[in-house]
Every structure is written in structure tokens, then in C-alpha cells.
Prior knowledge:
Strand order of the largest sheet: 1-2-3-4-5-6
CATH topology of the largest domain: Trna Endonuclease, Chain: A, domain 1
Distance between the termini: 15 Å
Order of helices and strands: HHHHHHHHHEEEEHHEHE
Number of strands: 6
Number of helices: 12
Amino acid sequence: MINADRPHLWKDDISKSVDLFNAWFMKFAPRAYRDTRISTTEAVSVGLAQTSDLRDLTPKMLRANPGILPVLRMCTCPPLARDRLVGLAYVGKALIGSLEDGKLPARMPATELDRNLARVTAIIVRMLDADVFPWLGDKSRPTEEERHRAATIVADRLCGAVSDPIIRNAQERRQLARIGGHLEKLGYERATHPSGHPLTAMAPGTYDFRMNVVAGAKRKVNIPIDVVIQPKRLRPTKVPILIEAKSAGDFTNVNKRRKEEAAKMAQLRDTFGPSVEFVLFLCGYFDSGYLGYEAAEGIDWIWEHRIADFGKLGL
């Protein structure tokens, strides 16, 4: 074991892990948020153009541009959550979900679809935020300054609604880059493993990101694995090392989701045997309760603040 059997070190490691995440968050999270806000503002500006600055909110427009619905929900006062719009418009949750994915429901008859789209647009029109879109009150054309200000406000609302995923995605990219950089210092090369080829056929001394691994005894499922590493010296089973990168900004959510890793481990063992190496790469808020649970399930981990522990995997 690397860290799972060293509980006397957990307290100090937890503190260092929290410090590392907090330092990253204070330095890089604002930039990640700002970058997303800039691109989102551009998307909102496109949405305003598609709706003639919100003066053409009709079922026909929504049918032609279903993916604009998340923007429209943030144009109301107050901004509408997806489920709130479902309730106010008396439409199905599946319909709103399809629109938000940029699609029209495939099986809904055209007349029923138009009726539902009319309900949705009627709610949006009724609740548009007059303070953000002052030109709607006097039916004038907005100035470029008014349009940009409105787009920025709506973009802020959109980013606020998805701020956690923005931070999580930025942190995930950083963690994978850190692992990749460390592996390449050890002489490993990133190489795409052909889809459909056995995992055991992965070339020695290579690694790749975000691979789907087919696992499970009775029911086969695709398990997404963040990093797959085939050691230079093949193991007897030829099964690569499987790494899951995890970060957390608080202690609550990790304990809600800790059973997911245990389920993955069980499926991987059913397929590749008890010696399969499924290791977590941790940064952030992981308390002793979480660590103890994972250790009891036979899952080990490497702390990002001690990335040299990758050497203990025999790389």
C-alpha cells in the first residue's frame, strides 16, 4: 500500500492537501471564472441577436434555436431554475431538458410541441427583467452599451449557476496536466490506445487520459478512467494502472460520493482480478472518514502534494 495503511500520516496530509487546494483556488479560480464569463458573454450576445434583442420571443424562434433556453432563463426576474420553469409553464421536464441540450424532442407531435413552446415563451416574456433590458419598456432599439451591459449581467447569472463545474473542470485539467508532466519526466509517452483493443495490449511505457474501460461480471459497463498507465515493465496480468483524479473544495460532498469509487473497484476486480490497481489522486478536502472508507474497500491513493509517491507504483 502507498497511503491507505498509514493512518498516522493522514492528519498532516489532510492539512497539506487543503492548503494546496486553497492556494490554487485563490490564484487560479478567479481567472477560470473570468475566462468563462468572457466566452459566455459572447454566447449571450449571440442569443440577443437571435431574438432581436428579446423582442422576438416566439415558439418559432425557440423551435429554431432550442439551445438558447438557458440564456432566456437568466433573462427573467428572478432568474428561473430549470425545474421552476417546468412548473410555471406546465410542461414536461423532458421537454425542457431536450431544449437545454439544444435539441427538440423527437417523439412529440408538432402541434403539442408548438403548444408547449408557446407556454415556455409566454412565461419568459412575462418575467423578463425590465431593469436589465430597459429598451423593452419603451420599445426602442438598445444601444451597443446597453446590449453589452445586459449580456454581461446575464453571463454573470449563467456563470453563477454553474460556478462549481467551472472550478471543477479547471482543477481537473490542472491535475491531469500535473500527472502527465510527472510521467513524462519518468520517460513515459502519451499514446492513444485504439478503441476496442484489449486493455492488456496497451504499449509498455505509455499513458493516456480519459479512457473508457469495459468492466463488470454479469453486466458490462463503460467505466471512465482519468489516467491509464502501462508500466515499462509489464506486470504478470498486463493490466495497466488506473488512476482517478479527484479534487474537492469542501468535506461534505466527498463523503456523499465515496461509494462511487467502491462500486468502480468492485466492477474492476470482477473483470481484471483482485490485483487490479485502481488508485486515487487527491487534492483538497478529504477527511479521515473518507480515507478510512476507501482504505476499507482496498482503494489506495496518492496525494498531489506528494506526487513522488507515483514511484511506489513501480513506474
